[in-house]
Each structure stands twice: as C-alpha cells, then as structure tokens.
C-alpha cells in the first residue's frame, strides 16, 4: 500500500471530527526577516522592538499574517489537498500575539458538510485553531472548501451548514494584553492619520505596485509549509504556470496598504475573504481599501477599524471590485474583510 | 602577482596534507528559516523545538543538510575550484547535532591521489571534517573529485587509492545523545509508518514535484558560501545556463521524500552519492526512495533505515535509475545512499 | 484628501530642517542570513562569532552594508520618492557596529539646496544619521539627490551648497572598540595578503561574476524597507524592466571583492560614490578594486586601506571606468570610494 498522503476526500469528513494537523513549527527571527523580504511590510509594531515596547508590548510580535499562514499551512495536507476551491473564511480572530521562538500547531473541527448536487464533490466547513507551545489558542477561524469525492456513488451525508457570523462583533475583538496607543508616535509610524481621521465609506488607493516572481511566491509558500502541489509544480498545468498561494496575495496587499493605512497596526479579526481570481507570476499586484466600520475598544488609545482590502492586477485608482452582473471583475484577486487596531 | 584565489591544481595536493578551510560560519535561526523557504522541508524534529524536546533533544537542531552544505561549501575554494567533476562520496557520518548559534569550520586531509591516463588531470580523495566552535567534529565524510593539472608535464605522483567502505556499518552510526523515540507522536509527525512498516526492497514514489528557479538555487548556494562560479555566472556557458549546485538537488529530494518517509527523521550517514546528470533552472524535480537495509540501534525506540534517494526530472512513479547499459538514465539527477533514524 | 504619501518636492525642503524618518527596524540573525543568501559575502568577521571574538569584538556584528541599507531605506519616503537621480555620497562614517537585536532609525538634516537652471527641479543635500535603540549614532553620511519641483513657478531658494570633504581624513576613522588584529588568523580569513602587501595604485580584478535576478534584488530592497516603486513595479517602464536598487550593486560588488581583498574586513568610511549606469535583471556583475591610499591607525595590528570599488557588467580584467570623454563607460555600474580596516 502506498505510504504517501493521498489527502482526504469528501467522504472522509464527519461532523464533530477533530483533526490534529501535523508538523508543529517553531517560528523566530528568521521567519520575520523573510516575511519582510517577501512583502513590503512596514507596520512599525512588527518592525521595531522599541516601537512595540513604547506601545505596551513586551517586544515586537511576529506579523499577524505569519501566524495565519503558518496555522493555515498545517491544515493543507488534511483539508485542501483534494480541494477544488477555497470558498470562504469567517469568524477569524487573533487571540494572542505570536512571539519569536513560539511553536505553532493547528487543529480543525469539522462543523459543516454539504454534498454538491452533481454528486462529485461537496463543501467541508472547518473551524481551525492555531495553538502555541503552551496550548494557548493564538488564532481561530472558519474556512470552507469544495472537496472531491473519492467515489461519486458514496452516499451523501446529512447536510449541515453552520450559521456563521457575517462580521466578527467589535465587542468580541481580542486586544493584546498591555496594548496602549496613548503615547503612539505617529511620526515614527510613518503617517499622521489616526482612527478619527477615517470615515466609514472612505476608499483609499494604495498606489504602489509589486510585480510578482515565481521564486518569491514559492519561497513564501514553502516557508508556511504549505505543500499544495499547484503552487510548485509547473508540469501540473498545460501552460506551465504555477498558481500563486492566495495567502501570498493577502500578505502583499496588506503590506501595500501601509501607504494610506500605516497606523492600522494589528489585524485582530478576519470577517470574510474571497480569492476572486487566480494570480500568476508576472502580474503586478496593486491594492485599495474601503473603511467598512469603526468601533471603540476598552484599551487605552486603541480604536478598531473594519476594512475591505482589495487586491487587483489592474488599476487600483478606479477601485475595481464587481461588474454589473455582481461577479468579481477579472482583474480582482482578493476581497478581504478584516478588523485592525489603530490609535485614536 | 594576482591576489585572487586561482584554486589548487592536481599537483598542489600531497598525501597526508591537511587543509584548514577558510571562513568559519555561525549558523542560526536565519539559516533555518531560509532552508525551510528554499525546500519543502517538514521533518518535525527540525521544525519544532517542542517536538524535538519530546524526543529527548534539547531543542530542534538545524537540518542535517545545513551542516553538510556549510561544511562542504568551505571546502570548495581549496578542493573543487578547478574540479572537472565531483565523483563520489563515502563514509559520511553525522557526529553531533548542529544547534542554532554554532560556528562551523572545515578541515580536509588528502587521502588519495591518482593521475588520469591522459596526463591532464587526476583524482583527489579527501576526508573532510566539519568542526564546531568547541572543535568537536560534527560531520566526517570522504569525497573524491577530478581536478585539472596546472602543467600536463608535471610528474605523476605515486597512485594511492583509499580503501573505502561501500556502506557505513550500522554499528558505527552515531545516535545523538538523549534521542528517544519511545513516545514518538506519529500524528504530529505527519505519517503513521514506523520502522517496522518498511520492507527491504520497498520503493516509494514521493509524488510531489518542484520546478526550480535560478534565484532559488543561487540563494541556497550562496547561503552555504559555496563560490563555484558555474552556479552564478550565466556568461560561463554558451547557453547562458547556470549549473545548479548538486547539494540543492539533494536537499530538494530529501524534502520531497517527507511524503512517504516523514518519520525518517535524522540523517546519520552518507554511504555513497552520485550526481548523475546536471540540473538547470526550469526543471521539475521529483523523487523516489528504495529501502536498502534496516538495522536496530541501542537508543530507545530508534531504528536505522538505509535508503536510496533518487531525484529525477521525469516521472518518479516509474522509479527511473539506470538503462540497460548500466548508465544513469538522462532524467536521473541524483542517486544517494544514506542511513536515517526512524521510530520503531 | 489623499492619505497616501506623495513624497516631498523640492519646495518642501528648507536649510536646517531635520526629518525624523519613519519605521524603526530591529535587525537580527534573520537579516544576516538573508544578506549572506543574497550576496556571496564571506568576510570572516561578519561570518563567525568566534572569528570576531578572536579579534576583540563581542561577537560578529551585522555586515556594515546591512546598517547602510537599513538607514538609507528609511530615508527613501522622505528624500527620494520624487527624486530624478541619486547624485552622490560624501563624508560617510560607520560609528558603531550594529549587533543582532539592535533597532535602527534614521534622521536627516537638510544641509544644501540649489535649484536647477531649468526651474523644474533642484538638488537637495542631506546629512543622514542612523541611530540605534540607545540613540547612539551608528552611521553618518551626506547624500545629494535631484528632486522634482511640485510647481515650476515656485520661487528658487537662496542656493546653499555645502563644502564637503572629498575624502574622509584617515585620522577621523572610527575603529570599533576592542578591535585588535594582532592575532589575526589569515588562514581562516581566506587569504594571506596583509595591509603591507597592498601598494597604492594597485588594481585587483575580482574575477567572479554573478548574474542577477528580479526575485533577488526585490527581496533585498524590501528587506531594507526601501519602497521606491521603480524597483518593484514592472508596469512603471515601457520595457517592463525594474531598475535595480543601487545598493544591491554595492553589496554585490563588495562581496565579490572578497576574492583578492578577503582581509579588507570592515568598512569604516564612504568617501564618495556614483551609480554610473542603471542595472537590470539578467546582467552579470563583476568587480575590480584599486588601492587609492593607505593609513595607519591607533588600534593594535589594524591598518586602513582606501579602495575604489568598481562594478561592471563587462569584463573586469580590463579595469573599465571612464572613456576619453571623461564619462563613465556604459558597462560601469558603480564607482565607490571607501576606507576599510585590514590586518597589518
């Protein structure tokens, strides 16, 4: 019998099943440096131990998306090796900062199952938790994927579709212990705009563009130990292209959003996300944001801002999103809805 | 007189000569992160401090091949700058784990010399030792290379061909102090297959493929301070290609072998190795393994498994190796014979 | 009003103005590993904690050019976002080693302003200081750039052109505390040539070449948080090329200069520098050096050597520099004038 991992098929999931994903990973200064080489990341809290300390943290945590990618990457062999599509995210919350030296692992619980009408595939909903070496949850999110059936003749399970919040309630956001933006240094952070300067409905063109290379997205995807072969194997498609990991686009767009949102320091919730179109090497990624909501928090000087982050291979100045048919425009790569923390 | 290093020619070597190679190197978390970005490395012992601690080690050592590449890289300016071919490896043993913060240097002793019948080149055999900052040997191996003569008229030395073991005896394998696989967590490691599940003669297709890029192999080769110009200078060949460092293929194949050999955690010996054909950017590397032997060890729960690891640019499912003429098939890049440690 | 950074125009600068640049950065082992993967850097003092300790330093500092690039990168959003050309450097001095874990930030003072006769742009001179987390200066240099005017009709300021030293006086070089080359190990360092072996006027062809890739120069430039869009956005130019950050060429040439100048360990002053021609991916960089001057220092066993470092995409053996018209030859990328420390 083959010893290699064939991945799970739709029939292999059951409601309530808990999957303890393999290969825990210690993340440290090396991962931080690579993250900053791969993306034009400049949010000061993740760049400087002194800046972080001046805002109440012990030192500079690893970028929130390092935690996300690492936790996500561990789930790939169990959840998305036979996935046809990554359909959505919901109820994502960052629960604790990840510090250099922490070891992360992931667990997922199957919370929904619905076979497609074609009988060849189905949708699997999982709630994934990232845990550190003290078994403390650092991240929690739901994602759902369309997975192939091994055998089309296998009976369909009773459909269960979880009732997911459209948006994480601002009251449920977890503010890192000690975070205090009362003495926030806007000059060192790079922009003067504070929470009060942003209006709901406001759109920001982040202006800059980055043309992506095969070597870069593969370095990134491997770093998160994401092994989905579509990202690495050029013989997998007729055109010889490698599909870029959607998370690479998330990190690129988030880093580009510094220009206009330099003070949206910490990502604390992922409300929703769609990988609207595939991305390939040679494309130039641009980004724009829209302020969807704002909320106060209990932490000193800290406000929450809900942002739509859109990545596009076209012109970001025209804020492309959907066509008249309600479908994403072909140049749109990503439509992400998240909460960030910002100085008041 | 020129101040640059012309490299050594065949006449510059003498039996018993000891070469202390230049530029010691401190390796740390940064090298680990880069290794994991360059290769799809996932063996849990090298990914997680907690996993390593649960198996009796102080923390997660640096990947065994980081030690190999670093020690090897130091020898290049003295051994292989004028080499025509890297002919073979033997009697390689890992003697101590390398920990983040260790400083490695290399020494080689010339143990064999044999001029070729054409009088233009000869074969040099060296035993190379890698040493840490406490002058403890961490790695020991023999390699032989074909080296140009400076002057074809120079007299041939008395031929000395060392008597090298075809395989490192299982009794001579060095098990890292404290290693204990009694409570090995197969679920966290990623596969259920234990030492007892592998049969001598069994072949495993590792399935996944990675298409290699110029930027990646150059990043890797520089990281090991390997300066052989064929790897970096596109003007060196008429077709503008850069020859990929053979060690890049070793690390890629070893990382791919996780899929089917996730529990072959530690490399402890290099019995033999052939770089069967050159590799160039744009090729897609696949790998397969064959179980050559098995042995017990004195360490609790720890078995040794001797593996052939073959890298190919073709289809790994057909286990390509040699043609009817006994020569390596053109798609075969690497034929490596090593011992690894695995939970019983 | 737009929240993105439009950069400063010529009218936005005034003599005596001090700009505190944004986004301090903690640099550590990860940055070191990436530097060594991006460039063939091998100077032993920056490669080995033990080698550094044997020469009187606490441990191995980060490469001098990591400090330079990081400090320089911070100035880009304020100084060179609307720059037409980076015109020159002067009076650069490294004042303190940068250790892993240090946090760097930058400040610049405007020390010169001169509108061009076309009324569309002007030259801005700034003195930039890099500071560590204890507010100690680690680096100090002057650079001048040609910057666009926002409004051609804006009145020209009173011209002020600073009186800059052509060369940093050898007596003003700052030797790191404790540095002692009395017991310098030439064998471990990689070359036998000491300070006394170099003659003023001597030229050294560094022989080796490295062909540069898009992925590599972008990784490097992002690592220094240099955000100039010309380096990243292929849609910025009609030919789809990305202009390579001049600092990438500096680091590549300096690393190549190991072959012939392995003992020119520490860069302590930047006397002058010209980015003679732009560099693009696919070019092969070679380097040569000329000994411009030598000086003694007060530190035990330590001499200073003033070097011209030239990077070229052509043949380095012919020492290309300028044509009969006094202009740089088209294959010359860089002409750098610096002081380094070398064992006597």
Automatic annotation (TrEMBL), chains A, B, C:
Molecular-function annotations in GO: lyase activity
Signal peptide (from-to): none
Pfam families on file: MC_hydratase
Record InterPro entries: HotDog_dom_sf, MC_hydratase, MCH/BMMD, Thiol_ester_hydratase_Rv0216
Database matches in PANTHER family: BETA-METHYLMALYL-COA DEHYDRATASE, MONOAMINE OXIDASE-RELATED
Protein name as annotated: Uncharacterized protein
Source organism per UniProt: Paracoccus zhejiangensis
The organism's taxonomic lineage, starting at the top: Bacteria, Pseudomonadati, Pseudomonadota, Alphaproteobacteria, Rhodobacterales
């Amino acid at each position: 019998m083959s010893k290699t991992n064939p991945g799970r098929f739709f029939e292999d999931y059951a409601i309530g099943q808990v999957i303890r994903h393999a290969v825990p990973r210690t993340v440290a200064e090396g991962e931080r440096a690579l993250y900053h080489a791969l993306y034009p990341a400049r949010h000061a809290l993740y760049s400087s131990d002194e800046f972080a300390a001046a805002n109440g943290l012990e030192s500079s945590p690893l970028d929130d998306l390092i935690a996300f990618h690492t936790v996500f990457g561990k789930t790939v062999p169990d959840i998305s090796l036979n996935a046809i599509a990554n359909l959505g995210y919901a109820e994502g919350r960052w629960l604790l900062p990840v510090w250099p030296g922490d070891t992360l692992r992931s667990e997922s619980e199957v919370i929904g199952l619905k076979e497609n009408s074609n009988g060849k595939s189905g949708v699997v909903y999982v709630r994934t938790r990232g845990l550190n070496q003290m078994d403390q949850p650092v991240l929690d999110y739901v994602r759902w994927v369309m997975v192939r059936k091994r055998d089309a003749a296998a009976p369909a399970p009773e459909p269960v579709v979880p009732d997911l919040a459209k948006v994480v309630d601002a009251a449920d956001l977890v503010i890192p212990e000690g975070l205090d933006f009362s003495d926030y240094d806007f000059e060192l952070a790079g922009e003067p705009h504070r929470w009060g300067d942003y209006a709901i409905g406001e759109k920001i063109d982040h202006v800059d563009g980055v043309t992506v290379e095969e070597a870069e997205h593969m370095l990134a995807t491997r770093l998160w130990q994401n092994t989905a072969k579509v990202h690495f194997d050029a013989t997998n498609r007729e055109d010889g292209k490698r599909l870029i990991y959607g998370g690479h686009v998330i990190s690129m767009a988030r880093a580009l959003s510094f220009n206009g949102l330099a003070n949206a320091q910490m990502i604390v919730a992922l409300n929703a996300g769609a990988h609207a179109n595939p991305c390939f090497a040679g494309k130039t990624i641009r980004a724009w944001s829209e302020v969807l909501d704002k909320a106060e928090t209990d932490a000193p000087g800290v406000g929450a801002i809900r942002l739509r982050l859109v990545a596009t291979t076209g012109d970001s100045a025209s804020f492309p999103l959907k066509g008249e048919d309600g479908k994403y425009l072909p140049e749109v790569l990503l439509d992400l809805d998240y909460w960030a923390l910002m100085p008041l």
